[in-house]
Amino acid sequence: MDAGGGSLSSSSSTLKTRSRFPLHRKSSRENLDRFIPNRSAMDFDYAHYMLTEGRKCKESPISLSPAREAYKKLLAETFNMNRGRILAFKNKPPAPVEKFPCEFASAPVERAEKPKRHIPQSSERTLDAPELVDNFYLNLLDWGCSNVLAIALGNTVFLWDATEGSTSELVTIDEESGPVTSVSWAPDGRHIAIGLNNSEVQLWDSASNKQLRTLKGGHRALVGSLAWNNHILTTGGMDGRIINNDVRIRSHIVGTYKGHEQEVCGLKWSGSGQQLASGGNDNLVHIWDSSTASTNSITRWLHRLSNHTSAVKALAWCPFQSNLLATGGGGSDRTIKFWNTHNGACLNTIDTGSQVCALLWNKNERELLSSHGFTQNQLTLWKYPSMVKMAELTGHTSRVLYMAQSPDGCTVASAAGDETLRFWNVFGVPEAAKPAAKANPEPFSGHLIHIR
């Protein structure tokens, strides 16, 4: 039903009524001081004169009375006056000025179009990932700023150096504590957090392969999501709790966010570090203010977003618009939603047709990459904000649960339940190569307390 049907018909009739009287007729009493000669009447008089009296004069000249002679003279003068002014100029009109030189007048103006980027349809590299846990609620892949990829396979965390193409083992967790349920690089690209099935979080130095400390007491169940905000490590657990941990101090718990009723499976800090987005198995997305977390009180969310109808794990903050957040729903939802996190408004919803497992923004173009589950197990590249599909990348034979982006923003690594790790050159090459950011060990240098 068209809600605007009635107003449309009424406005149409109004339009027709107005079109009948496009101009307002002025009163006949206006401008009485102007004299406008009735040229048409004079022309008819002259024509009549030419057809009758003029011919008579030529055939049989008859002397006219002085009154008729005067009238004849007036008609002739009036005719000459009117005819002489029609389409006449005292001076020659000026030549038209050309806006463009003649040689360019016929040539169309050409706009330099940006060449379309070639998007390879197959992965450029595929690595085996045996014992990769096929669990939608975990986060087992991360790519640090030092260009080292961390992946958890069962109880072991492996490091793959993308620069050298070499693989090393960081740690194997014992059976009582494992398996590994989440991994996340610190901003310095050297230290890494490892969430465990036994509710603990371990911090490791990847350069020396040494464990620095263990964070305990924050959760009562496995830690499936991790997110760094400078020296604050935020952890999300199966118990629905979100904990802020300051890794520089002995009593590391400095804030708690409570709002999820089930497992927290997605955590992402905004680029500014002012807002935290969390997604849970309760189909909820929360937006939290970083300044409101407190150890001794329950922190209330800034926005509680309940539009999804399935678990929300995929979260991605837009790199070119600070208050824009993209979220993806699970198998019963299958949508990507966009949010204004200043006011909590849902800006757009796209039905992808399949489970949304992960989301990544292109750092160099306005594009969004999503990874999916059944039935195609594909990666889909979208143009933002039109959300037109630019490419669909296939190759995985099971749902693509995890994605990570290289530091330069060009390559994407994807890990799936088929126990393979694939690398895609989906985001192309940046227009201008930016110098690599220097590692910043400040959150750990001389401040981290070594506690097992």
Automatic annotation (TrEMBL):
One BP term from GO: cell division
Basic residues bias locations: 17-26
Residue ranges annotated for the CDC20/Fizzy WD40 domain, each copy included: 127-424
GO MF annotations in UniProt: anaphase-promoting complex binding; ubiquitin ligase activator activity
Stored SMART domains: WD40
GO cellular component terms, semicolon-separated: anaphase-promoting complex
WD repeats: 173-214, 257-298, 305-349, 393-426
Region (Disordered): 1-26
Assigned keywords, A-Z: Cell cycle, Cell division, Mitosis, Repeat, WD repeat
Pfam families: WD40_CDC20-Fz
Protein family (similarity comment): Belongs to the WD repeat CDC20/Fizzy family.
Task performed by this protein: Component of the anaphase promoting complex/cyclosome (APC/C), a cell cycle-regulated E3 ubiquitin-protein ligase complex that controls progression through mitosis and the G1 phase of the cell cycle.
Name used for this protein in its record: CDC20/Fizzy WD40 domain-containing protein
